[in-house]
Design a protein that fits this description.
Belongs to the RutC family. This protein is of the alpha+beta class and 126 residues long. It has 2 helices and 6 strands, in the order E-E-E-H-E-H-E-E. It has one domain: RutC-like (60s Ribosomal Protein L30, Chain: A), CATH 3.30.1330.40. 21% of the residues lie in helices and 27% in strands. Strands 1-2-3-6-4-5 form a 6-stranded mixed sheet, covered by helices on one side. The mean pLDDT is 97.
Length: 126
């Protein structure tokens, strides 16, 4: 059985999907982009700010499922320009401790929704 996870502390979906789905003890988050959940506006001030907003949106979704970044076992990062990898990685890394960091892939893509520069999704377990 699946449970839909919703929170107003992260952006509402912009299509036919949910912020996350919990199946048993496994949480699958949808990709988050740099939408400010308070204003519903995209914030592209810098790649660092964008990444921090994405991670904070994911944090809100995890918390809605009674989880934290400690529960994350896999992250998928999509960037529009691999030259931004080190900046994205630096911000992303502040949300994890190295000993318990999840598995991850980072992929450069041609475009992302709303033409943002980074999108991240996660899988977490209780």
């Amino acid at each position: 059985m699946k449970t839909i996870i919703k929170t107003d502390k992260a952006p509402a979906p912009i299509g036919p999907y949910n912020q996350a789905v919990l199946v048993g003890d496994t949480l699958y988050t949808s990709g988050q982009i740099a939408i400010n959940p308070k204003t519903s506006e995209i914030e592209l001030d810098s790649i660092e700010h964008e990444t921090e907003l994405v991670m904070n949106n994911l944090k809100a979704v995890l918390e809605a499922a009674n989880m934290t970044f400690e529960n994350v076992i896999k992250s998928s990062i999509f960037v529009s320009d691999m030259h931004n990898f080190s900046k994205v990685n630096a911000v992303y890394g502040t949300f994890f401790n190295d000993e318990n960091a999840p598995a991850r892939e980072t992929v450069e893509v041609a475009n992302l929704p709303k033409f943002v520069n980074v999108e991240i999704s996660m899988i977490a377990i209780k």
